[in-house]
Design goal:
Blueprint: H1 9-12, E1 31-33, H2 44-52, H3 66-76, E2 83-87, H4 88-100, E3 106-110, H5 116-123, E4 127-131, E5 133-134, E6 137-138, H6 140-146, E7 151-157, H7 169-177, E8 184-188, H8 202-209, E9 213-218, E10 230-235, H9 237-246, H10 254-264, H11 267-289, E11 296-299, E12 305-310, H12 316-325, E13 328-332, E14 341-345, H13 349-362
Parallel strand pairs: 1-13, 3-4, 3-7, 7-8, 8-9
Antiparallel strand pairs: 2-10, 5-6, 9-10, 11-12, 12-14, 13-14
Helix pairs in contact: 2-10, 3-10, 4-5, 4-9, 6-7, 11-13
């Protein structure tokens, strides 16, 4: 019998999350195009709110984040009582699995989707199940075919990380309609604000109309508040009650709550960020397409990054090294099926200029 504390076997199956790098192998600091952060930074209004909140460090924050929930509800046309806030959307994704799955159960998600889903499943003792994807995109039929009587939670990232792909509203609705009512569908919309606003309502509509849909969002991406770790979810009262029972009691800091409030009030910043992303992502897509005769291509993206494939003489590893030597960190995800690809966050215009120039040089094209 062991004389030391022994972790549960399903915990030992977890491979800890690996964040995007910001330094080179020789210790040099790099411009980080590896973590999908907002290159425009943070709304000035949110920065002012953060500064103003510094004097409140000695007191606990509002445990229910009531003012923040009310503002979220106002901006998105939701019911504040059907919203819960978390330490980033990561906390809420983990709580969704913990609240509705356990030993003997299955948590289902598409191949090449967010690595936290696998962690969330294993953390609560459930079995992670990957459904085949189609062209790096969630395959609704494959997901529905993978559902068993042990399935308790289905995760769908839309847009998806790390591929950037997106399935249209009718496909999301078809997936939900094909799931048993006792299965929780979690729609992870961390990148939803980069979509055309007209395409952002599907998850909200499903979560308002059904008891088994939870939608998660974050302030880490388009709002530029990654350091504050603020996320939120909306769903039926029973779902929100479950997450409130098991979340941290003071899980969103006072400064984070105030920064989130201010960020929500600065929708001009959100629109500028969306427009910048669309323009620079299109420019990077065009540059990669122009190098198609060298084996480069990109996966159609609706997020704030582009997955670039290297299927010619230039390898992803060689490109990763060369880009780092130029001063930039991009993301290599050497999992099965993605070893040949790099995920490049959309940065400032000058960042995209430099990355494009490096790719052209590596392919032997004039800069």
């Amino acid at each position: 019998m062991s004389t030391l504390p022994t972790p549960k076997p399903w915990i030992l199956g977890i491979h800890a999350y690996v964040p995007g790098k910001s330094t080179a192998s020789d210790g040099r600091s790099l411009v980080k195009l590896s973590a999908n952060e907002n290159p425009l930074g943070t709304s000035p209004a949110a920065l002012q709110a953060l500064e103003a909140a510094r004097g409140e460090a000695a007191t606990y924050p509002d445990p229910s984040a009531a003012a923040l929930r009310e503002k979220i509800a106002e901006v998105h046309g939701l019911d504040a009582d059907r919203i819960v806030c978390g330490t980033g959307s990561d906390e809420l994704l983990n709580l969704a699995a913990q609240g509705f799955a356990g030993q003997g159960d299955e948590v289902l998600f598409s191949r090449h989707s967010f690595s936290v889903y696998d962690i969330a499943a294993r953390r609560c003792g459930a079995s992670p199940v990957e459904a085949p994807d189609r062209a790096f995109t969630a395959d609704v039929d494959a997901l529905m075919s993978a559902v068993t009587d042990r399935t308790r939670v289905v995760f769908l990232a839309n847009p998806n990380n790390p591929t950037g792909t997106w399935i249209e509203p009718e496909q999301v609705r078809r997936l939900h309609a094909g799931l048993p009512k006792e299965v929780l569908l979690v729609i992870d919309e961390a990148y939803a604000e980069y979509l055309d606003p007209a395409m952002q309502r599907t998850g909200f509509e499903l979560s308002a109309a059904h008891e088994n849909v939870l939608v998660t969002r974050t302030f880490s991406k388009i709002y530029g508040l990654a350091a504050e770790r603020i996320g939120w979810a909306t769903g039926a009262p029973g779902l929100i009650d479950t997450l409130n029972r098991i979340r941290g009691p003071f899980n969103v800091t006072a400064s984070g709550q105030k920064a989130g409030l201010a960020a929500l009030g600065d929708q001009d910043f959100v629109e500028r960020s969306r427009a910048h992303n669309a323009a620079e992502r299109s420019r990077l897509e065009s540059a990669v397409a122009a190098l198609g005769n060298h084996g480069l291509s990109s996966v159609p993206s609706e997020a704030n990054f582009l997955l670039v494939e290297f299927n010619g003489d230039l390898s992803a590893e060689a490109a990763l090294t060369a880009i780092a030597e130029t001063g930039y960190a991009v993301r290599h995800l050497p999992e099965p099926g993605l070893r040949h690809a790099l995920r490049i966050t959309i940065g400032k215009s000058e960042d995209m200029d430099r990355v494009i120039a490096v790719l052209r040089q590596l392919c032997g094209e004039a800069a």
